[in-house]
Amino acid sequence: MNSNLASLLLSSVMDWDYVGLNSERPELEFMGSMKYDAYDRFMPGTRFMSSLVQWLNQFDEEDRETALNFVKKKLVFISSTQMNYLVDLLYDSKIRPILLKKATENAQMPSYMLCNQKVQKQFDIEKRSSLVVGLSDGAHTDILRRSAGFSNEQVLTNYYPDEKKLKDMLLDLREDKKLKGVERTYFRNIFLIDDFTASGKSFVRYDENAKKFKGKLSKIIDQLCAKNIERTDEEIAAGQKEELHLSYLLDANQPEIHIDILFCMATDKAVKNISKGLDDFLDKQGYNKVKYHIHVVQKLDESLSTDITGDPELMKVLENPKYLHQNLKDDTAYKVGSVNKPYLGFDECALPVVLSHNTPNNSLPILWQDTDNDQEFKGLFPRISRH
Length: 387
Known about the structure:
two-stranded parallel sheet; alpha/beta; five-stranded parallel beta sheet
């Protein structure tokens, strides 16, 4: 749909006259050209203006102005350029200071002597001995690897590598000249990376029905604490089973396992949920040697949500069952969070956030709902599920 046709249809949907259209059109087209047109999940040929027209047309006439004002004044769109910048900051503002602190401590030098040759040598050791693991397909580990200068053999895009990959990673680490003379060469620093979290429920939670902990972090920590079954090539050839976990990369004799969990963007709610969930999980599993710290580059202020729930006109629109898929409350993944007010998004986070590569389900469903059914409401920025 070309921009002129989209504008004409928009004026019809919003019942604008010529003056009204020319007053609103420049702002909306500017929004689209600067950011919204680049949304990755738009169908080929789709642009923001055409999606906006179709989206607004689904609302009752009396609700369209409220919906449009929500887009113009409350929507937060994180472009790929902005997210890549946050990934760059992930190393410079979070990971590098952690490695420098460990370098000064292990070199037994004062914290202010960062330029000391001994500290710099130790820093190279700490950096090369760092294991970086992506927690989802949105972790942008490729960008982080390039901006930080990490080796391919110390970055994992998933937390279930096969035995050969684990062996190759440890062998490459031990053959690296930067670690020449280092005793007991293993990975000593663990960084778990993801781009965004709003509720924290997908990372660690206790499932009352299954009576066990679920989530990415619980799986990874189980891997880091698991016992390995190693076999020689001859034993493997003879049919004996070998079973290696992420713990294969770590020194089994180390007194503690330090994990740094890093997010490009997160809410305070998510950080609190993850902290509580991890504390309960570590205590329940008896993983006393595991210590963790959570870092966030860009925290999302709680006002983003309260600005939604505190707007009576917008809440009236959101509460209208016509704009919500009726099966959403019964969705297995959606039921992991609270579903008393499903129109506020997963776990009732009530976020107005759209990421350029996908819209999180913690945001308002009117933004991301997708369907092949013409009778059901379709979001302005349809998402694809990552879970």
